[in-house]
């Protein structure tokens, strides 16, 4: 696969994917890290790692204009698989359908619970005892595509969104490379380590 990683911010999941790829966790080539936000911190991280980068600004642009430029950037890199990693722009059904089965996302909850934004606050408000993260195929329905894998962490008494987010992020960094490996033809995985229960189907 020729893999593009789409980011909007810090890019810690992107960094983990690049390093896991280099460690042989999944095949193919990471051909592009693309941000829809100018100056996203993750772009510097990608550059330091020697991965080609691009910025396609979404701010103030129509969905059609933005997605046309995004398509062009992905075509120019000859990408055929896309990982969304903290990419904060919702893609239209028309765009998503072109990538069906070839685009995955990581979401910081145990789907189907808590879709959309501020999901850590949603989990705390709901009083669940577990939270976690999900890697799923992207479909036209927000955060509702087929699940590839999930990792669970405890939600502790006194958790704030920040402490829970940090715990979930550690689980994300374990899950995402294994889920990408599975999406690209690798084996199912189950592991329980460091307070993280992880299952990739
Ligand atoms: C992650 O928590 C991801 O689940 C959410 O946005 C965050 C991105 O973090 N969609 P990073 O940019 O990968 O550090």
From TrEMBL:
InterPro entries, per the entry: Formyl_transf_N, Formyl_transf_N_sf, GART, GART_AS
Biological process terms in GO annotation: 'de novo' IMP biosynthetic process
EC number: 2.1.2.2
Organism whose genome encodes this protein: Parvularcula maris
Top-level division of the source organism's lineage: Bacteria
Name assigned to this protein: Phosphoribosylglycinamide formyltransferase
Residue(s) at site: Raises pKa of active site His: 143
Binding positions for N(1)-(5-phospho-beta-D-ribosyl)glycinamide per the UniProt entry: 11-13
